[in-house]
Amino acid sequence: MEIAFGEKLWGVILAGSLFLAAGITLLMYYRLRSRDMLTGPRLRILMLLRFLSVFLVTFLLASPLVKSLRKITRPPQLLMAVDHSRSMTGLEENMARRDALLKLAQGLQEELDDRFEVIPYSFGAGVTPGLPTDFTDKRSDYSRMLQTVYDNHFNENIGALVIIGDGTHNQGENPLQQAERLPFPVYTLATGDTTPVTDARIVDLRVNRTAFAGNLFPLEADLRVTGTTPRSLLFSVSKGRRQVFSQMVNTRENAWFTTLEFTLPADGKGLQYYTATIESLPGEQNLNNNSWPFVINILENKQKILILSAGVHPDAGALKNALEQQVNYEVTLVTGDPYPSNFNDYNLIVLNQMPTAAHSLRELLEDGGRTPVPLLVILGAATHLSQLNAMGLGITITPRAGDAEEAQMSPAEGYTPFTLSDDLRENLNRYPPLKVPFAAWEIDPSYQVLGFQRIRNLVTSRPLIATGSARGRKTGLIAGEGLWRWRLYDYTLGATHDHFNELCDKLVQYLALRDNEDRFIVSFKPVYTETDPVEMTAEVYNEAYELINSPEVTIQMTDSTGREFSYIFDRSQLFYRLDAGVLPPGRYAFTATTTTERETRTETGEFAVIPVNVELADLRADHGMLYRLSFETGGKFFTEKEAPRLAEVILHNSAIQTTSYFQSTLYELLNLRILFFLFLFLLSTEWFLRKFWGIY
Question: Is 661 exposed, middle or buried (0-12, 13-18, 19+ CB in 10 A)?
Answer without folding.
Answer: exposed
